[in-house]
Amino acid sequence: MAENRSVDMARSCADQTAARLAAVPGIRRAPTGKLEQFILPGFLDPQSCAQLIERIDRDVRPSTIADPNGDESFRTSTSCDLDHRDPLVRAVNAKLHALTGIPIEFGEPLQGQRYEVGQEFKAHTDYFDPSGADWETYCAVPGQRSWTLMVYLNEPAAGGATRFLATGKIHQPETGKLLAWNNIGADGEPNSDTLHHGMKVRKGRKYIITKWFRERAWPWTKGEISG
Known about the structure:
The chain is α+β, with helices and mostly antiparallel strands. It contains four helices and 14 strands. The radius of gyration is 16 Å and the shape is globular.
């Protein structure tokens, strides 16, 4: 098992992402010192959201977690890795990287998620536990997750909000709205105040896309993606 260690945010320019996001017109910064969190309505247009939903519906599979905890109902959504060769996916991916100022090689493939009625993702963090059983599998090469950017693609009829436990803030799904937060604190350590809950959908479906950024270059980009 790996020992806890400080994350080098400067390697990927992720140490500058908060300042960069704060300067974006129309963005809102969450009023908390517990994490760096930003909300940007209308990041994606409705047509792009609808097209991404079509792609998610085509390719979903059961969602998984890195370190199984014995709770079969912990994450009940479905997920898919969106095809990075798809022109729409490529354009959205580039837009997310441009927003953060993090170079393309430091990003995971863009993932889509779908939640049916009753499905949820119980309280969790997006960073990997350095003492977890699968740390080496997921982090030996690309390192820790630095930032998360999530975009709501639709508005379910009821439920499906994202709740951050440390702040008590509940973010409601709005078509095209982006939610961004840092998984690593200013001290280079994982920030436990990013614990969040993808709450149950009560009526309809919820669709989102999620982009995770890494401490070091992600191997999938080599020979596949250009900035």
